[in-house]
Amino acid sequence: MSQLLSFRALIGLSLAVAMFAFLGASPLKAFTSTLQRAGMDWFSTQQNASASLTPRTPVYFFSHGGPDVQYNTKHPVFPILQQIGREITQQVKPKAVVVFSAHWMGEEGAIHVNKEENTDLIYDFYGFPDHFYQAKYPNKGDSELAGKIMVMLSEAGIQSYGVNRGLDHGVWSGFNVAFDPETNPLNVPLVQVSLYKTEDPHAHYALGRAVAALREQGIVIIGAGMSVHNLRDMHYMFEGNSNPMPYTVSFDNALKEAVEVDPALREDKMAAICKRGDAKQAHPFMDHLMPVYIAAGAAGEDWGKQTWTLQEGSFGWAQYRFGDVATSSKL
């Protein structure tokens, strides 16, 4: 109704211009200027209304597990990843997905962006049964979106390179659960972007901030890692003990507290946990932690929420969402 009234107002102004033409140039000039301003305001309103039709997407952090996660249907995380996947496909309904995986580090001072459209899988693990190396995950890249990401990074002062690369298991193993090709296919372009080859939380937070505007275009950003990831202590689990290590509990809890603070304080709070005494026990290498900083950076002023966690042996399985889903049904 407001749009119709605005349009009628423009018509009325146009008719008034004809009348003022009889009264002299000055009144006509002044009134034409008013008409132009009204027209600009009207078109601006239409643009804003059009933009509002695409709700800002939430940002996600997946604790993705190993390459066995897609086969271990009895593990407690399996139905959780399925539930998150359905939330994304059925409620968020993204136009594309951009993912940052713990298993791809670019350079210390540069980010790599996968511009390949026909993306193969990378089997970046060893010692697993043969069928793990036959796994498939149908997906389609988007070179145009990859180029857009590189422009956004450049505008933020971040150097990047476009490369042709496959998807690593940090993406496809968890995505095979969340976005099962048979029961819950993603059916939108998927572009993977690297981490930095550093353990700098602020740099990764800034990386997320640089691509945050993708959310306004209906694109979902996902960081894929683990909230606690210590492969060195896995042997305790092989001995039949799944009780969490003390550092698994303390660090997973500390991460939750840092993620869920006021967004204005979040970056510093999250950076501080990398200096905790248990940080290098929870993450001997920080590659699986850095994606949550990217997710938090992309979240901007949106609050973070831990939607689920499991503290198991030397692993933390926390799942996070930043921002709201645009429907009433949430995890």
Show the helix and strand layout.
Blueprint: H1 2-20, H2 25-52, E1 59-63, H3 77-92, E2 96-105, E3 110-114, H4 143-155, E4 159-163, H5 169-178, E5 190-195, H6 201-210, E6 219-225, E7 228-229, H7 235-238, H8 246-259, H9 263-272, H10 279-282, H11 290-299, E8 304-308, E9 311-312, E10 315-316, E11 319-322
Parallel strand pairs: 1-6, 2-5, 2-6, 3-4
Antiparallel strand pairs: 1-11, 7-10, 8-11, 9-10
Helix pairs in contact: 1-2, 3-5, 6-11
Describe the protein.
The chain is an alpha/beta fold and 331 residues long. The protein has a single domain (59-322), classed as LigB-like (Protocatechuate 4,5-dioxygenase, Chain B), CATH 3.40.830.10. Helix content is 42%, strand content 16%. It has 11 helices and 11 strands. It has helices spanning 2-20, 25-52, 77-92, 143-155, 169-178, 201-210, 235-238, 246-259, 263-272, 279-282, 290-299; strands at residues 59-63, 96-105, 110-114, 159-163, 190-195, 219-225, 228-229, 304-308, 311-312, 315-316, 319-322. The strands form 3 sheets. A 6-stranded mixed sheet has the order 5-2-6-1-11-8, with helices on both faces. A 3-stranded antiparallel sheet has the order 7-10-9.
List the keywords.
about 325 residues, alpha/beta, Protocatechuate 4,5-dioxygenase, Chain B, 11 helices, disordered N terminus, zinc ion binding, Extradiol_dOase_DODA, ferrous iron binding, Xdiol_dOase_suB
What is the structural class? alpha/beta
Number of strands: 11
- Tally of distinct domains: 1
Give the uncertain stretches in residue-range form. 1-51
CATH architecture annotation name: 3-Layer(aba) Sandwich
CATH H-level superfamily title:
LigB-like
Amino-to-carboxy terminus distance: 36 Å
Would you give the CATH topology? Protocatechuate 4,5-dioxygenase, Chain B
> How helix-rich are the residues, as a percent range?
40-55%
The number of helical elements comes to 11
Main beta sheet, described? 6 strands, mixed
β-strand amount: 15-25%
- The strand order across the widest sheet is 5-2-6-1-11-8
- What Rg is obtained from the alpha carbons, in whole angstroms? 24 Å
Mean pLDDT: 87
Q: Which CATH class applies here?
A: Alpha Beta
Sequence of secondary-structure elements: HHEHEEHEHEHEEHHHHHEEEE
What characteristic shape results from the CA principal axes?
Answer: globular
